[in-house]
Amino acid sequence: MFIPKQIYLPEDMDKALKELAKKEDRTVPDLVREILSKELNIIYIKARKVIVNCSLCGEEIEVTIFPNKRYIGGHYFGKVTDEKFEYWECSRCFKK
Ligand SMILES: [Zn+2]
């Protein structure tokens, strides 16, 4: 994950973080990193993993679906005809 070395915060937030850092004997980047990873964890915990099969080669694909409906792992093309069949492709077939 990319974390910029230099970040610019609103003055009051900057002040609050500096105070917290001083109190906990840590650095501001440390705190920011912790806060960011907590946020990312929350997003990740809410995600659900499903196993789907590639519609072309049949290979199992593990897809992670996030609460905002974004997903990683496979390539989804939508539901087909009876709404029960979902068309997925694995990365290999997708590249072809
Ligand atoms: Zn495939």
Structure description:
The protein is elongated and about 60 Å long. The chain has about 100 residues and is of the alpha+beta class. Helix content is about 40%, strand content about 25%. It has helices at about 10-25, 30-45, 90-95; strands at about 50-55, 60-65, 70, 75-80, 85-90. It starts with 10 loop residues before the first helix and ends with a helix. A hairpin with a 6-residue loop joins strand 1 (about 50-55) and strand 2 (about 60-65). The protein contains three helices and five strands; from the N terminus they run ααβββββα. It has two domains: about 10-45; about 50-95, no CATH class. The mean pLDDT is about 85. The longest helix has 19 residues, at about 30-45. Helix 1 crosses helix 2 (about 30-45). The structure holds zinc ion.
Heteromolecules bound: zinc ion
Q: Report the total helices.
A: 3
Counting helices, strands and paired strands, the structural category is alpha+beta
Q: Uncertain spans, ≥5 residues at pLDDT below 50? A: none
The pLDDT mean sits at: 86
Q: Cα-atom Rg, whole angstroms? A: 21 Å
Helix content range? 25-40%
Strand content: 25-35%
Order of helix and strand elements from N to C terminus: HHEEEEEH
Domain unit count:
2
Total number of strands:
5
Distance between the termini: 30 Å
Q: Give, in spatial order, the strands making up the sheet with the most strands.
A: 1-2-3
Main sheet summary: 3 strands, antiparallel
Shape: elongated
